[in-house]
Amino acid sequence: MKLDVSVARLTADVAALATEPRGSVHAPAAMDRARRYVEDELRAAGWSVRRDPFTVRWRFGVSDRPGARAMPLKVRLHRRLSGTNLIARLPGATGPALVVAAHLDTVQGSPGADDNASGVAAALEVARLVRAADEHAPVTLVFPDMEELGLIGAKVAARRLTGVRAVVCLESVGYYSDVPGSQRLPGGMALAFPTAAGEVRSRGLRCDFAAVIHRRSSAALARAWQTAAAAHGLRSVLLRDPRPDGPAGVALGVLVPVLNHLGRSDHAAFWNRSVPSLMVTDTANFRNAHYHRATDRPDTVDYARLAAVAAATARICLEERRTT
């Protein structure tokens, strides 16, 4: 299957989105500009897109202040939050959907080129590629709001969406380096995940791969994504979260804190509702010094490898269609 991925379109999308910080609380006008850009691109690609507003009260989440902080220092109780998710579907598509999710918001003070304009741009390219190949593909695109406040929009989407068979979350997928020693490993990872840690170390701790975080329920999907990425020249490392989907997995995260690094994006909201899900990521702050900073700008993104992420994701959307 030949997919005509456009590096030029990816570059233009990241440049258009990562001009300023965006968030429904700290930068609502910028957030609305980003939403309108995504809506326009999706409609131009032939997708039906709708806004799904929500309001939640008294929810535990995190702070979206810039910089990297230990999780206990980020915890916040949000009294009231109002946001809007974007949901897109191909007109006439039927049947259980594979969801591709990429959050649209940033932390305060960061234009968020890698986190997460890269994921949004990849999802937009997936939209173009899938529509060109199969105008009835049962794929849903979700652009959650308030990921940076504690997966708030994704929790709403996971509750409201029906007919979801699996989720692929694109989270910070644009930063790579071939410099030895540039990849860091979370504390305790070598003990908890010796195979994945050994694979990364065997290549000199280079940031030349995408990490694919999955659970047993999404293992086959993760392997399919890895195969598709390899066909487009991108290495990936599979890392299986040993927790089960659903409430039991949440409880185990309290007992084994290192596992919580594996749930740091919107896929976790679907895991918690027992939906098979995976996250594709460049590992964010474990390699990218610009993470959650004003320097997370479009010129730091590796667009060739971002194109491979988009192509691999589009390919599994289309191949999953043929096997279901």
From TrEMBL:
Highest rank taxon of the organism: Bacteria
Domain Peptidase M28 intervals: 85-182, 262-314
Pfam families, A to Z: Peptidase_M28 (PF04389)
Family annotation (InterPro entries): M28_fam (IPR045175), Peptidase_M28 (IPR007484)
PANTHER family listed in its UniProt record: METALLOPEPTIDASE M28 FAMILY MEMBER (PTHR12147), PEPTIDASE M28 DOMAIN-CONTAINING PROTEIN (PTHR12147:SF26)
Protein name per UniProt: Peptidase M28 domain-containing protein
Organism: Amycolatopsis tucumanensis
Species classification: Bacteria, Bacillati, Actinomycetota, Actinomycetes, Pseudonocardiales
